From TrEMBL:
Entries under InterPro entries matching the protein: Ald_Fedxn_OxRdtase_dom2 (IPR013984), Ald_Fedxn_OxRdtase_dom3 (IPR013985), Ald_Fedxn_OxRdtase_N (IPR013983), Ald_Fedxn_OxRdtase_N_sf (IPR036503), OxRdtase_Ald_Fedxn_C (IPR001203), Tungsten_al_ferr_oxy-like_C (IPR036021), W-dependent_AOR (IPR051919)
Cofactor (UniProt): [4Fe-4S] cluster; tungstopterin
Keyword set includes Transmembrane helix: no
Identification of the protein by name: Aldehyde:ferredoxin oxidoreductase
Length: 718
């Protein structure tokens, strides 16, 4: 359908004009509020209190979400919000990974706040258009598109009945519609979901960037927690921002020179070291597949196993030599020399409504390759790329899709479900055709795909109540916690990583604490106290990226040559100093490492209390499926029998001679579950929480977060 026809189908619902304003030290000092139930658009002041206690990014998102909702708000209530905020550093062009924004909402998967970080151009362009954050509330009656013109100072809400829904089509339509010419397309960014997000709770949001070399609209994803489902439930088809005139000093920084210096140093490291270390500029995060398999950490067949002889078939060399375009600058924001946003260009689709079309596939990232690939027993790169594309355009999170599909594949293999239940789908491990058909069913809103799209937490209930499955066994093998599917790392042999998944606020997502190598490979944190310290520092430090609008990858996916000789090599101290310099350069705040952690602690404890306000956030909610701790089945134990027998003898003094596998499994399980409970105690104490996981009043006061609204929630739980 041509652009003029699409325009003719539009109906203007409201228009809002605003003064363009100017950024100062990374802030516009206002946020954009849009209520689509009332077609209301307004400006809200960003207060000094917000900047002091919440900084930006995820902090602003949680603050607005708290104030916009109530203790009884559900994900599909009109008052639930979607907040997009980049943070004060977001948008600088000198330092790699400075284009991130954070998206917050009450999650359909977990029914508590979710935050998801995302690249692409939308976050920076929103800020340059004059807004520190976008707060979206209400529900439209019909599909709408919101348009923000950051050069003219005009915002519109329009009914949009004719545009596509799937992201790769819709983003191309809207980029063409709002750009003045080809060169202007890079000044347009679009947020979309897709037809899958209309039916599956694991729906995601795509944030676009226009690739001037490929002449195609590409995407980065706010994938976790189902925010795309909220987006489509509100009948938002897209949000579009346009701003021309991007340059390196638009944040009006305090000290441009120190930002430039840090950026030049980092760019040199990227140029000189990336090929020797992780090859991010050639394969992106997909470099991890063979490493994870070698260390028994790659999820295989629903996390039963940690490696596979066919992992090399989906490893980095295969992707580099056969699929991923090389030699282009693949950053998802200006100036990112890490350039990890790889693509497979001219990829011909074999299934679904776009069969036969040649498309650009963004990825695959490691999480996608492991999730929809090895975890489902699929070791075919073409199959992974096909699923990757359809997840993106349908608006489906690849992590939740892969982990949920792996779960149903194991249930199918074990006879818990059958073809009658799956609608004829032969959901055995390795069956690409059945896996991709689940995706197409999600898009159409039919068949067993709709069931899978609700996620593992809901499927466990259905399979036990309707099909008579053992709920305890489903809990053990269902790799979800708090309602969110696990990301793609096997944590059986790393107690610290079990805590890194289980003791998060939002569910088992590795962006808070990825400690497997510190714990399991390098043995840097041997005691409970060491592990507790790591599970205090790293979640707080990584939260800090989400407050300022920074990507975590330049921090530790490239390391300085002398890093191993520093006192704390796991923290990459030289890069931490870079971040402190950049933040000072933008905002004028002189922070040290203690200040960084305290800034994050304020927001982290706020989010914990937000969970408690919504009925979660206590020790019971930090329980994890046993498969994340150890072997659930006889096959799993015996696949690593020498290791497990050795551990029983050396750690517990248990004589394994003459013992059945089941007997040994029971002893090992008791030990590992006990270890996890001890870890919880140590981590809670280090974080300043009581034994039930509630922040103490003393800790809140120490952080300056003893706000009456927070104290009222936790005072009776002390």
């Amino acid at each position: 359908m041509d652009i003029n026809t699409l325009k003719e189908g539009r109906k203007l619902l409201t228009e809002y004009k605003y003064e363009l304003g100017k950024l100062d030290k990374g802030y516009t000092d206002r946020s954009l509020y849009i209520n689509i139930s009332e077609n209301k658009i307004d400006s809200k002041p960003v207060t000094q209190m917000m900047k002091d206690k919440f900084v930006g990014g995820k902090g602003f998102g949680l603050w607005y979400l708290w104030n916009g909702t109530t203790p009884t708000t559900k994900w599909n209530d009109p008052e639930n919000e979607i907040i997009i905020c980049g943070g004060p550093v977001c948008g600088i062009t000198q330092y790699p990974g400075s284009g991130k924004s954070l998206v917050c909402s009450i999650s359909p998967m977990t029914n508590i706040p979710i935050d998801s970080n995302v690249g692409g151009y939308f976050g920076p362009l929103l800020k340059f258009a004059g807004w520190d954050a976008l707060e979206l509330q209400g529900k439209a009656e019909k599909d709408i598109i919101i348009y923000i013109d950051g050069n003219k100072g005009v915002i519109t809400i329009e009914e949009a009945p004719l545009e596509a829904i799937d992201s790769h089509v819709l983003a191309e339509q809207l980029t063409e519609m709002y750009a003045d010419n080809e060169a202007d397309k890079r000044n347009v960014s679009v947020v979309t979901a897709g037809t899958g997000a209309e039916h599956a709770k694991m729906g995601l949001l795509n944030f676009s960037l226009y690739d001037t070399r490929r002449k195609v609209t590409r995407f980065k994803q706010a994938g976790r927690g189902g925010i795309g489902r909220v987006f489509r439930d509100k009948k938002v088809k897209a949000i579009v921002v346009k701003f021309s005139g991007v340059k390196g000093n638009l944040n009006n920084p305090v000290d441009q020179a120190i930002i430039n210096k840090a950026g030049i140093k980092m760019h040199k490291e990227m140029h000189n070291l990336d090929d020797k270390q992780n090859r991010m500029r050639k394969v992106g995060t997909g470099y991890s597949v063979e490493i994870m398999s070698a260390y028994d950490l790659l999820p295989v067949m629903n996390y039963q196993y940690g490696g596979h002889e066919d992992a090399k078939k989906i490893g980095p060399d295969i992707l580099i030599n056969n699929y991923l375009t090389q030699g282009l600058e693949d950053g998802c924001w200006y100036g990112c020399s890490m350039a990890c946003a790889k693509t497979a260009d001219n990829f011909e689709l074999q299934t679904g409504p776009y069969k036969g079309q040649r498309v650009t596939v963004d990825g695959p990232e490691y999480e996608t390759t492991a999730g929809v690939g090895s975890n489902c027993g699929i070791f075919d790169p073409r199959a992974i790329l096909e699923i990757n594309f359809y997840c993106d355009t349908y608006g489906i999170d690849t992590i939740s899709f892969g982990t949920s599909t792996a779960f149903v594949m194991e249930c199918y293999t074990r006879g818990i479900i059958n073809k009658e239940i799956t609608g004829g789908l032969d959901l055995k491990f390795g069956n690409f055709e059945a896996s991709v058909e689940l995706l197409h069913q999600m898009s159409r809103g039919e068949g067993f795909g709709v069931v899978v799209g609700q996620g593992i937490h809901q499927m466990k209930k259905i399979f036990s109540e309707e099909y008579g499955a053992d709920p305890d066994f489903l809990f053990d093998i269902g790799m979800e916690q708090k309602g969110l599917e696990y990301s793609e790392y096997g944590s059986k042999e790393s107690l610290a990583q079990q805590g890194g998944f289980g003791l998060t606020n939002k569910g088992p997502q590795h962006d808070e604490a990825w400690l497997i190598f510190m714990d399991m490979v390098n043995n840097q944190i041997p005691t409970f106290e060491d592990k507790a310290e790591a599970l205090y520092y790293f979640p707080m430090f990584r939260t800090w990226f989400g407050l300022y609008g920074l990507c975590k990858l330049p921090w530790n996916d490239i390391v300085p040559e002398g890093n191993k000789y520093t006192s704390e090599p796991a923290k990459i101290p030289e890069h931490v100093q870079n971040y402190l310099d950049v933040v000072y350069g933008v905002t004028g705040k002189r922070l040290n490492t203690t200040d960084m952690v305290r800034e994050s602690e304020r927001v982290y404890n706020f989010q914990r209390i937000f969970n408690i306000r919504l009925g979660k956030g206590l020790r019971a909610n930090d329980r994890v499926p046993y498969r994340s701790m150890g072997p659930v089945t006889k096959e799993e134990y015996e696949s690593r029998q020498e290791r497990y027998d050795g551990q029983l003898k050396e750690i517990l003094g248990y004589d394994t001679e003459g013992k059945s596998t089941e007997e040994k499994m029971a002893v090992l399980r008791k030990h590992r579950e006990n270890q996890y409970e001890k870890l919880i105690d140590a981590v809670y104490a280090r974080r300043g929480w009581n034994s039930n996981g509630v922040p103490t009043l003393e800790r809140l006061k120490d952080l300056g977060m003893d706000l009456p609204i927070l104290v009222d929630v936790v005072k009776d739980l002390q």
